[in-house]
């Protein structure tokens, strides 16, 4: 899977998608998943798509901003996004938006795409007049921008955009064009660099356009999701899935033979594997892990012996249609940090046996499929249509307050294979506050990778099944991850910021979930909108 995409090969990066092949045509996969009657929703172009709200700036001058996507064009070479930004409030001096990088997300397959950059990290498209990444901004004046992304696969008809600092913008349609929009004829941005020299009233600021060249590279990756239960957890990253059976339900201390209960868990796991493993790549790698107690040699041997015990029983259940491989990685790959206040939980998390395989992309959970609530339901991937665009998060359904920060919670909204959680945070004091929202220190023994970021301590809990859904990550390879959530920075007195966190979706018959909101506590019966 490509991680850094040079412009010269971007047109070839079209594999891995099973999406709509048009606005009204239903593929066999869609028919099997949703039924003929449902059909894909009609994709309508209603540009501009507009969001307004307060964004975080590096100077603390957290201004109100209007962000409008005015076009998303797919050419033969790349994807071109046109957008406009304006600030109605007063602020001065050089400021940088502290939102995540501009990112296009395919909510069905989980592919993610970021902008083309040069070797100095500067963006292609609208050029910074001083070549420092900054642009002149004047109160009430609209700036027009163009940015370039890798070419989206032909089958992708809608994407979700994140990175404006104003939450997730779902349902943005992709426009197929022979030629992209023409460049500004006489860019006026360099002519109005100082605050005392605004453009004439009603005139937008425009900038020279630089198209990607042979030095252009762009990050491509996948949304990586993590779902947990008392019995097992599942990590999905691209076309690979890892089911991890917690060793505390598998083995006695210092033993490698399966308990009776463990044998039952492995047999149920075999049913899940038979459904989920890609028949075109039927290799299942059984990987044993230990905690950090003991020396390397001892733990390596124990992890192999445990993996072999699981492999042998799995072979009895699955038959000869699968290739079973065994690896023992001892204590070398912990997923939770040991030695802290939650050391016992962390060590329990690290003692595990994993099944790693390429999943079958044509098998998806449906509304009619019986939901597995015994803990192995973690391996189900639940997909609906991409969410239509909306700038309205709905009505507040729950609220709370902690240390001067008021939290307001809006309904959850399913977008393809993911659920978007939207919250608003308000500083009710007279002093700037940096909320302590947790992360790894608030989730005992939780996998550290999925607890990073200021909303990393948030989770969705499904009371009926006991499944816990963590905030998703974007994986760009080479251990480069980005939380699929807006970062929370210092909130100025009286200011309100709307923030989003994205989770793997529950089955379509789940109507409510519990939001675990870090130090704010738990909020039950948060509705899920489809």
UniProtKB/TrEMBL annotation:
Domain annotation OmpA-like: ranges: 238-361
Source taxonomy: Bacteria, Bacillati, Actinomycetota, Actinomycetes, Streptosporangiales
Superkingdom field: Bacteria
PROSITE patterns in alphabetical order: OMPA_2, PROKAR_LIPOPROTEIN
Keywords annotated in UniProt: Membrane, Signal
Residues spanning the signal sequence: 1-26
Keyword Membrane: yes
Keyword NADP: no
Stretches for region Disordered: 178-203
SUPFAM superfamilies linked: OmpA-like
Protein's recorded name: OmpA family protein
